[in-house]
Each structure stands twice: as structure tokens, then as C-alpha cells.
Amino acid sequence: MNDPIDRNDPYETTELHVERLLGRALNSFDLPDALVERLRSALAHASALHSSHHSAALHRATYRHTYLLADGESLTLWELVHHTGEDDRDHHELYGDEAEVRLAAARLSAAFGLPGTVRRADPLDDDLDADLELLSALLVRPLAPAPRLYVPDDSADHARRVLRRAENADRPGEAVAARLRGAYAHHIQQVFGRQCGVAGGRDAGFSLYEHAFLLLDGTEMSVWEVEHTATPDGRHMCEVYEDEHTARAAMEVRAARAW
């Protein structure tokens, strides 16, 4: 049976994960519209095997997919994956409630004359708790924004240094750099900061800064700097992005890689 967690693609974004999950489910049209709409705002996700059964007649597994939403709430989907001995193609079903997926699994077992009970995968549930702790640490509500106070202090050079130290390949390009050469004042504020555990029992730090600039033409623009130590050797790394959403998504990816 293929693994719905898709461990071969650990850098899959939450948006793509949701699309893949809904796209392959035979009964996705049965999910409430309100649930699907909330799912569209998911910022991070964690998946784990919840129960399984394997026999000559039937292979069945239940997965729990938990999402952290933009409003700070969490949402859980239950996925039933099954195939028979004659048909080795996976079939996927989605449910919004654990009782519903248990009933579906019991009915499936009954159709093959098998016991309706399921074998729990408790050790993997422990792994999920660890995953959720990490995701919660990354996606806590942002720090309260400080009042923006622009300071004219060689701001064009500050912008140049911020862009120069960025190590990410998708950092802002020449168009952004050209605009920032017209910066005459700037303001820096930290909007996120957290320490969390990663693989190997060590801690990694994540910080997100907004560098806001006031330009000579009277307009404002910002770049977003991610500083973290989720690197193989624990060294400090800086990445810069053009918008906050992309910067936060990058933190999620870095945390997933480190985990």
C-alpha cells in the first residue's frame, strides 16, 4: 500500500498536501463546504498512521491529518486507505470525524467477513504529538507589532546589506534591489521568534523580521528576513523574501527538513 503521508516528498507545502488529499478522495464531495473552506487556510500539517489491518483479502489503514489554520485553530481529517487482494490499487476516503472513519472501516471489514476492530498504531501517535509540538511552536500567534517609526540612517546601505546576506536562491532580485536604492529611512521589527526541538535532540531558533523602508518617491516597501539555526551543523543562516507569507512558508519547510 502506498504511504499517504508521502514521506518521499518531505518538502511538500501544506497547500499542495490539501489539494492532493482532496483530489484523490472518492468521497471528497461529501465533506461539508465549511470544513473544506477552513482547510484552505491551513498553514501547516502533520500526518500519522492511526490504525491498520493487513490480510490476504484486505489491506486497510487509517491516517490522521492534523492542520494548523490561519485563525490559530486546528482541524483534523481522517483518511481511510484500502485495497483488496484482487485489486491492489489504493482507494482513499476522507472523513471529518473519527467515529465516521471507524464506522467506514468496520463496514469494510464486515464486507470481507473480518473482525471490525482495528489495531492502533500508538507509537506513531507519539510521533504525531512531537510533530504538532514543533508546528505549534512555529505557528504561534505573531508578536504584537511595535509602532512603526522610520529612522533615516543610511537606509539604502542597510537594504543592500540585508539582501547581500540572504542565502536562499529565491531571494529578492535586481528589481527589488533597485527600488531599495531609493530608501532614505527604515524600520525593523521582529514579528516572530521561537526556539523548538528538532532532530537529534537539539534546539533550533527561528526569527522573522520585517525590514520596512520609506522610499524617495514617498512609497513604502518591506522585505522579510528569516534567521534560523535549522541547518545540518546548527550554524546561523539568513534568508530574505519579498512577502511575509512566503517567509513563513519557508520557516515551515526548514523546520520539516530539520525534523
Order of helices and strands: HHEEEEHEHHHEEEEH
The side-by-side strand order for the widest beta sheet comes to 4-3-2-1-5
Query: Strand fraction band?
Result: 25-35%
The SS-based structural class is: alpha+beta
Question: The biggest beta sheet, please?
Answer: 5 strands, antiparallel
Q: Helix segment count? A: 7
Describe this structure in words.
InterPro entries: DUF6227. It holds the Pfam family DUF6227. By secondary structure, the chain is of the alpha+beta class. It contains seven helices and nine strands, in the order ααββββαβαααββββα. The protein has helices at 14-24, 33-39, 98-111, 122-138, 155-164, 174-180, 244-258, and strands at 42-54, 58-69, 74-84, 91-95, 119-120, 183-197, 203-215, 220-228, 237-241. A five-stranded antiparallel β-sheet has the order 4-3-2-1-5, with helices on both faces. β1 (42-54) and β2 form a beta hairpin. The longest helix has 17 residues, at 122-138. The two termini are 25 Å apart. The model is unreliable at 5-10, 116-132 and 138-144 (pLDDT under 50).
